[in-house]
Design goal:
single chain, alpha/beta, Oligo-1,6-glucosidase, domain 2, TIM Barrel, Immunoglobulin-like, eight-stranded parallel barrel, six-stranded antiparallel β-sheet, 25 strands, binds alpha-D-glucopyranose
């Protein structure tokens, strides 16, 4: 009986999407046998799916907004940095729970060649865990243990490329045509030269150019990222099918959220910039339907590190959705611009854009992640505010390396490109806020200032709709780690400055309220609990910005079901008065005290969360 129900359920799901799948697949590949194989395999992966996961799929189908609540809180972490191995992470679930986390993004952990791994983003086997981290069985055990505690697990699905050590690449290097056709090979530089005219570079200094010479076969191979990351050719239906089987294999290990790495790059056309091409959306739409048929509990998180106009199309449309969630990357970069300039105008404008988007778009909000910060700001608007692109980027990079008089930040440049005069920046939140300088100089006033700024930025992030994601270590104000500079395999890639080992000794100070670690941990804990308790933080609340007549102050309002909150965030080192008042009794959510909202004074680098009930 149960079996029959399952079969029926599958048919219903398939029925809903089959016409569109056929249509899109034939449009892409015009290949009936490969389509038939794909459909057979979908059924096969569904049958293999664990019963508990199937039950959770059904529950999530019944509650499609299950991930949109105000209680979702993410953390991204490197397994080796946090707990050594996957088993180690399982042993540390208590710490994550204590830190209010119910969504863990495990940074890349699949097999990858040491020293040619791009932090794990060069996968040599999509079905094998890096041996020093554990096994697929460990992963399954971890997902099960997490699910018992209602924690979701996210992983990267690196679909744009494979490592040069992946079996396909190895066989391609032996000259096997079948495998060469899974990548982009050229026997002459003519065509690559044409691509180079229109395709920008991702790593202009650490990995210049988009092609790599492959002497074994006397061909050039396309390598948009590092030379050891070979771009997959999705014009070949075998690539699409096999990658979908890999996807379903990983989904069946119990992964809840798949982060589609570098998704804008997956389709290439000569004469274009090879970014965000229409067929990328065809593929993501196919993936969404495949998920809805085989594993409807799994969410797609698109990694689109671009301006809002390019990000939003990845949500798809109401009838034809693509990704469930996307990163709020421009808000992140604009927040740091605001820290460096004390000028909230651009951030306010950016928030107005995001606040106007449909409420069912779910954004992941973050201050820092494993990657550099690219200064992708709205320079047209900045020009009207008196900032010029090249000199402003230089200012930001100088500021966050502590090279200007007003800055206590510490950081490293990333991909400093003399041609475009562009460079990005790497550092942890706390080091960017000045905590590293404060601790190094034993300067209590500076430590205070850094802790306050750090907390104000988190309070601001928690005020936004969507899912806040904390970068592991930020909850205890972890500083930059410069040890990568002595490791020849890492020294070239300054992103390792913010990928240091989690400092468990510092974490032990988290309940010591006199330590910076304890002050940050405790305040974040209180904010997180408030956020998950107060419905005004729900993703579908109405959100707006408020003009306080003070450019260094940002004010945001949220309203939901007769509850309202006004948040004030002071980005300056001076106390500021918000020229804003409202009748009625408010509750200061952090202090728990009743208060009036009458032109409040916001201390330097501080914030206020004031709530009113109607
Ligand atoms: C994504 C990752 C980044 C990696 C790149 C190539 O952008 O976040 O770390 O270098 O993809 O896979």
């Amino acid at each position: 009986m149960e079996k029959k129900n399952e079969e029926q359920l599958y048919q219903e799901r398939l029925e809903k999407h089959i016409d569109e799948i056929k249509w899109l697949y034939m449009e892409l590949y015009d290949n009936e046998p490969m389509l038939a194989e794909l459909l057979d395999q979908l059924k096969n992966w569904y049958e293999k799916r664990d019963l508990k996961l199937k039950a959770s799929d059904r529950e999530r189908e019944r509650m499609p907004d299950w991930y949109k609540g105000n209680d979702m809180l993410g953390m991204m972490l490197y397994i080796e940095n946090f707990a050594g191995t996957i088993k180690g992470v399982k042993d540390r679930i208590d710490y994550l729970q204590e830190s209010n986390i119910n969504y863990i993004h495990l940074m890349p952990f699949l097999d990858t060649p040491e020293g040619r791994s791009d932090g794990g983003y060069a996968v040599s086997d999509f079905r094998k865990v890096r041996p020093d981290l554990g096994t697929i069985d460990d992963l399954k055990e971890l997902t099960e243990a997490c699910h018992e505690k209602k924690i979701n697990l996210c992983m990267d699905f690196v679909m744009n490329h494979t490592s040069e050590d992946h079996e396909w690449a190895v066989r391609a290097r032996k000259g096997e045509g079948e495998y060469m056709s899974r990548y982009f090979f050229f026997d002459h530089f003519d065509i690559p030269a044409q691509y180079e005219k229109t395709v920008p570079q991702v790593f202009p200094t650490t990995a210049p150019g988009n092609f790599t010479w492959c002497p074994e076969v006397n061909h050039y191979v396309m390598t948009t990222f590092y030379p050891y990351q070979w771009d997959l050719n999705y014009k070949n239906p075998r690539v699409f099918n096999e990658m979908m089987y890999n996807f379903l294999f990983l989904a069946n290990c119990g992964i809840d959220i798949m982060r589609i790495d570098a998704v804008p790059y997956i389709w290439k056309e000569l004469g274009t910039n090879c970014r965000n091409l229409p067929k990328v959306h065809t593929i993501v739409r196919l993936m969404r339907m495949i998920c809805e048929i085989v594993c409807p509990g799994v969410l797609l998180l698109g990694e689109v590190v671009m301006e809002p106009q390019k990000v939003v199309p990845y949500f798809g449309t109401v009838e034809k959705p693509e990704c469930h969630m996307l990163y709020n990357v421009t808000t992140m970069a604009t927040t740091w611009h605001t820290v460096a300039t004390r000028d909230t105008r651009l951030l306010k404008k950016q928030l107005d854009i995001v606040n106007d988007l449909p409420k069912d778009y779910v954004f992941l909000n973050y201050l820092r992640c494993h990657d550099d910060i690219g200064w992708g700001l709205d320079y047209d608007t900045l020009k009207t505010e008196g900032f010029e692109e090249v000199s402003h980027k230089k200012y930001l990079n100088d500021y966050f390396r502590g090279l200007t008089g007003y800055s206590d930040s510490r950081g490293r440049l990333y991909n400093d490109d003399p041609v475009s005069q562009d460079a990005r920046l790497c550092a942890t939140t706390a080091s960017m806020c000045g905590l590293e300088t404060g601790i190094r100089d034993k300067n209590e006033a500076l430590i205070d200032k850094a802790v306050n700024l750090d907390l104000t930025l988190h309070a601001f992030m928690f005020m936004l709709s969507g899912i806040p994601v904390i970068y592991s270590g930020d909850e205890i104000g972890q500083l930059n780690d410069y040890s990568y500079e002595d490791d020849p395999k890492k020294a070239d890639d300054s992103r390792y400055v913010h990928r240091g080992a989690f400092d468990w000794e510092k974490a032990d100070l988290r309940h010591d309220l006199l330590s910076p670690q304890g002050r940050i941990y405790d305040a974040l804990d209180r904010m997180e609990k408030i956020r998950s308790r107060e419905i005004v933080f729900m993703g579908n609340a109405t959100v707006w910005t408020i003009d306080t007549e003070e450019p260094e102050l940002l004010a945001i309002g949220r309203y939901y079901k007769k509850e309202k909150i006004i948040g004030f965030f002071n980005f300056s080192e001076r106390s500021k008065t918000a020229h804003y008042s409202e009748d009625g009794a408010f509750l200061d959510l952090m202090s728990g005290k009743e208060t009036a909202l009458l032109e409040p004074e916001i201390p330097a680098h501080s914030f206020l969360w004031l709530k009113k009930s109607f």
